[in-house]
Specification:
Blueprint (H helix, E strand, L loop, with lengths): L2 H23 L4 E2 L5 H6 L3 E7 L4 H16 L5 E6 L4 H6 L7 E6 L2 E7 L4 H12 L4
Parallel strand pairs: 1-3, 2-3
Antiparallel strand pairs: 2-4, 4-5
Amino acid sequence: MDDEELDRIREKKILELQRTLEQKNLPGVVEVNQATFSRFVEGNSFAVLDFWAEWCGPCRMVGPIIEELSHEFAGIVTFGKCNTDLSPRLATQYGISAIPTVLFFANGRMVDRVIGAYPKDALRSRVIRAFGIEE
């Protein structure tokens, strides 16, 4: 191997490490329950809350999408997830009868709702529309 090739490999490795570090510093999805719900909704101008349960297959498909969107909209929208089995009163309060259900809150008020497992592009579009985010 020549020096030029070693330099390229070093640069590639450095970029990979930087990306890994940046991803670790990105905010993720916040766990929300009955006790933390008000603070989550009222403390964030734009909040998205995914109601789910461990036994729910479609919920396991939506979970990673919510995680990815939390990184894409970091600093603009806060994302959370609420396990309906652990917070049944909260689920009842918002009329959650099927999961996954994703609620969108702007300035403390619910502005949109999505029921079912939607693909990433569809959920991203709903986030943009719900909060008037320009692309």
